[in-house]
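Bench log. Compound arrived from synthesis this morning; before running ITC I wanted a structural hypothesis for how 6-O-phosphono-beta-D-glucopyranose sits in the protein. Inputs:
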Amino acid sequence: MTQTTRFPEGFLWGGATAANQLEGGFNEGNKGLNIPDVMPGGKIRHTVRQDPSLDFTIDQEKYHYPKHQGIDFYHRYKEDIALFAEMGFKAYRMSIAWSRIFPNGDELEPNEEGLAFYDNVFDELLKYDIEPVVTLSHYEMPLHLVKEYGGWRNREVVTFFERYASVVFNRYKDKVKYWLTFNEINSGLRIPLYGLGFVRRKEEDKYQPTFQAFHHQFLASALAVQLGHEIIPDSQIGCMLLYTPVYAYDCHPENVMYVLEEARMFNYFCGDVQVRGKYPSFMNKYFKENNIELDIQDGDLELLEKGKVDFISLSYYMSRTDRKENEGAGEGNMVGGMKNPYLKASDWGWEIDPTGLRISLNELYDRYELPLFVVENGLGAYDKVEGDGTIHDDYRIEYLREHIDAMGQAIEDGVEMIGYTPWGCIDLVSAGTGEMEKRYGFIHVDLDNEGNGTLERKRKKSFYWYKNVIKTNGEEL
Ligand code: BG6
């Protein structure tokens, strides 16, 4: 592999997590319940997140709720941040749990204990010169807003989010410059409960509530960008997209057209609104064809135009290969499609495609010409702790090496990049499966799927490897 100095000076190497997957302390510090708190581990979670009749009651006798404890970052953040610093992190992507700040979401005054917790976390990061990169909403909507307001379907939620954003911008204005509005905003198309805060009711139209909820999120995002710029003039506020390049299974023009349409909807619809400040033309046709009539009120379109983001962040795990006659039926990997014969897959069936990252970065940069920040990427895998306590995660090193190399190639292609924060830099609870044993970390956490373990932290082989990557600014992979 060629070793060059491709990464710009000041490139933000680091790692990424989300509050609900690592903090624990779910009922401490006056925190209110949020969606992840009521998601049990195991297969039952599929039913819970799709059943509109469930009232999200916690039944601890019956189920295990892995996110109640997370990996106990709430109490161990100092130890964990010290380990990030030991690796040489320049940045740490994390999220604020909205329900720590506004336990129900609709209060007028914030919860001081929640605010103080993040003050402590940011201070600890800054002590080591680690730049916090903060997501305002990472699948963490307060449960009260889901149950009483119907999630993002309800326009009132925009005001609550605006209040939340204003409180945290004011409170942390001297500590946090990089902000992301909604994690993987386009994922609301796949799992509406996590992204949009509701499960579609049986009698409801398939499309209308979803796209109305997106409209409200776009307004909330635009308001947050505007507020952030006012309150923190040197802030950088980005959108966050779950990006999966879509490949045509073959060169039949119908299939090429099909994947173009799929990519437009999944990869570009949200980004176009947040980056360009307006709905893309292809959505007008889609809205017409599906009888969607958005309630767009006076001033909404001007607000979108004024609330354009400064940069684009993305998660990249896999590509998708598809063709028309497949019609979304195939199970190529997590994002659907078909098996790509050229790619291997992870233990969870996610296809491994480093070139897909280079393609994604080029596609996004060509389209928007804004700096890009890869804020999630990584390999979820089973790890084995050897008798002497070591963990030889060479498969993870190989995955990351190839993806970092692909990112370096994209930079050589001309793409402007801010940084790279691989997902789950410390093992944490999986968002998709609720498992602990789907591990991404450089740091191992002694905890199993049922919640047994000492929570002890251990450095994996990849810890030392990544430390050197950062030290050499990506020269030595
Ligand atoms: C992203 C999410 O979709 O993928 C994270 O933003 C998530 O929250 C990550 O953890 C990996 O997915 P999973 O299902 O392996 O945890």
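What the model suggests: The mean pLDDT is 95. Residues 208-231 form the longest helix (24 residues).
ITC booked for Thursday regardless.
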